[in-house]
Amino acid sequence: QVQLVESGGGLVQPGGSLKLSCAASGFAFSNSGMSWARQAPGKGLEWVSGSYSDGTTSYAASVKGRFTISRDNDKSTVYLEMNSLRPEDTAVYHCTTPRLPRPHLSIGYESDFRGQGTQVTVSS
């Protein structure tokens, strides 16, 4: 049974930083792509960043240069370090993994396994 448990969210001022964690279990983590996706109030799910099993990473244009995804295969954990946070980054952040392997994590992510999420609020 796939389980994804996010943590690390909170309230931060604009320009601040947060680091999210996602503990995964129930599947072959080291062989799996992992992503972070977010949902802002009243909006749809938005893909943010992906980490492929070969070590490649990718980012949405809106966060590139500010966010960094990383993974620890020994701990089956994926991280999202967020810097220079903006009010528009306010959302529930979810950790996701594909139900079946696919070449691009940013396409089709809506149907991935998804954790409950952790709230990130950027406000002064």
Question: Nutshell version of this structure?
Answer:
This protein has no helices and eleven strands. With 124 residues, it is mostly beta strands.
How does this structure look, described?
It contains no helices and 11 strands. The chain is globular, with a radius of gyration of 13 Å. The protein starts with a strand and ends with a strand. It is an all-beta fold.
List the helices and strands and how they pair.
Blueprint: E1 3-7, E2 10-12, E3 18-25, E4 34-39, E5 45-51, E6 57-59, E7 67-72, E8 77-82, E9 91-97, E10 113-114, E11 118-122
Parallel strand pairs: 2-11
Antiparallel strand pairs: 1-3, 3-8, 4-5, 4-9, 5-6, 7-8, 9-10, 9-11
The arrangement of helices and strands along the chain is EEEEEEEEEEE
Bin the strand percentage.
Answer: over 45%
Helix/sheet category = mainly beta
Q: Enumerate the spans where pLDDT stays under 50 for 5 or more consecutive residues.
A: none
Q: Which whole number gives the mean pLDDT?
A: 97
Helix content: under 10%
Overall radius of gyration: 13 Å
Q: First CA to last CA: what distance?
A: 40 Å
Distinct helical segment count: 0
Major beta sheet summary: 7 strands, mixed
Principal-axes shape call? globular
Write down how many β-strands occur, each being a DSSP E stretch of 2 or more residues: 11
